Amino acid sequence: MLGVVGLHPERALGLNSVMMSTGFTSGAVLGGVLTDLMSWRWAFLVNVPIAPAAAVAVAPFVLTDTSPRDRTRLDLPGAALVASGLLALVYGATRLGEQGVRDRWAIGSLVAAALLVAWPGPLSGLGRRRPASPRRRAGRAMAGAVRKDRC
Predict the structure, then answer these.
(1) Contact (Cβ atoms closer than 8 angstroms) between residue 2 and residue 12
(2) Residue 110 contacts residue 89 (beta carbons within 8 Å)
(3) Tell me: the pLDDT tens digits for 112-125?
């Protein structure tokens, strides 16, 4: 947001609060009108045409061509472990509500969820290499700038 308004944080915060309050107010009003005129199901169906239109409108601004050195690899094992952990969490909570605390599957699922969600790094092999972070990239760029100045 600072890129839009320049170096004026007060203006950025003011614009942010105006947009959020407008969204909250208009969303509540339009949601009420939609459910009153149609049905509550339309609150879910109205997003179906809006999401692809927004994706097409925003894609040229968001999808920019980057050089290969700026790209980072996706952590597919880590994503699979976190998704499995969330699935185990939902399953364990649902089963716990139905069967009670003495259900071994519920407790086992919750323990597995805690391990998979809270501790995916060592399980997926992230501990072997440092993930790319903006701070590391900025440090490399700054070191290159310092070296160029000394020459």
Answers:
(1) yes
(2) yes
(3) 998 888 776 665 55
Using a 10 angstrom Cβ sphere, with 0-12 exposed, 13-18 middle and 19 or more buried, the burial of residue 12 is: middle
For residue 37, give both structure tokens. Answer: 């005129």
Predicted TM-score (pTM) of the model is 0.42
Q: What are phi and psi of 127, to 5 degrees?
A: -70, -15
- Whose tokens are 């980072």? That residue is 72
* Structural contact between residues 148 and 141, judged by C-beta atoms closer than 8 angstroms: no
Nearest 5°: CA angle at 52, between 51 and 53?
Answer: 90
> What confidence score (pLDDT) does residue 9 get?
79
Question: End-to-end CA distance of the chain, in Å?
Answer: 37
